[in-house]
Write a structure and sequence with these properties.
This protein has six helices and ten strands. The protein is an alpha/beta fold and 210 residues long. The protein has one domain: Spore Coat Polysaccharide Biosynthesis Protein SpsA, Chain A, CATH 3.90.550.10. Strands 1, 4, 5, 6, 7, 8, 9 and 10 form an eight-stranded mixed sheet that branches. A two-stranded antiparallel ribbon has the order 2-3. The chain starts with a strand and ends in a 5-residue tail after the last helix. This is Molybdenum cofactor guanylyltransferase.
């Protein structure tokens, strides 16, 4: 079974402290959109956050919330907190600042992972690996992540140096009919403004009945 993991414990410093999970797009909070999309293929959902009260008033009642164990260790600490709670063999891990998640893309990566010996399958877009929309084997990776955190080696991408992973490139996504915009994140107010402008343009392109 696949577990969906949303990392929502960041400091949001580039957004001047504004909680990116609660930004809105197409009438929903980012995290609401993510929960809906991920729940279509995930048997359970985990949100890594140090303040679950922000989300419990409207999120699904069976959501699992867990705080960071290694405080202040960034996304790698979020992986550790989530993977420490899981019993499932596979996890779809995303950042809370990605509004266009794709269950279709996740299913493609999960299929590859379950039929291989990789530790993780990730999108590679623009020549960059996108670890916060990847599929992982949590039981296999947790000891490695714990070791890195205990050594204060917090860089998330450094984990890739010690695991067996596969990157799925843009051409493969195109051939599968999947737009790579599912990896786009919103880190700054300027990027969020661009997303809202895109939303308005899309709305304007819709033909409305007279």
């Amino acid at each position: 079974m696949l577990t969906g993991v949303i990392l929502a414990g960041g400091q949001n410093s580039r957004m001047h402290g504004l909680n990116k999970a609660l930004l809105t797009y197409e009438g929903e909070h980012f995290i609401e959109r993510q929960i809906h999309e991920m729940s279509s293929i995930c048997g359970e959902m985990v949100v890594v956050t140090n303040d679950a009260s922000v989300y419990t008033s409207w999120a699904k009642p069976d959501m699992i919330y867990t705080p960071d164990i290694f405080q202040g260790s960034g996304p790698l600490g979020g992986f550790h907190a989530a993977f420490s709670t899981l019993t499932n063999d596979y996890a779809w891990v995303v950042g809370c600042d990605i509004p266009k998640l794709s269950a279709k893309a996740a299913t493609k990566m999960l299929t590859i992972l379950t039929n291989s010996d990789y530790d993780a399958v990730l999108p590679v877009v623009g020549g960059k690996h996108q670890m916060l929309h990847g599929i992982y084997r949590p039981k296999r990776l947790l000891p490695l992540i714990t070791e890195r955190l205990e050594a204060k080696r917090y860089r998330l991408s450094g984990l890739l140096d010690s695991i067996h992973w596969l990157g799925i490139k843009e051409l493969d996504w195109m051939e599968a009919g999947i737009s790579v915009d599912f990896t786009e994140d919103v880190d700054t107010p300027l990027q969020y403004l661009g997303l809202l402008q895109e939303e308005r343009r899309t709305d304007g392109d819709v033909t409305r009945p007279v």
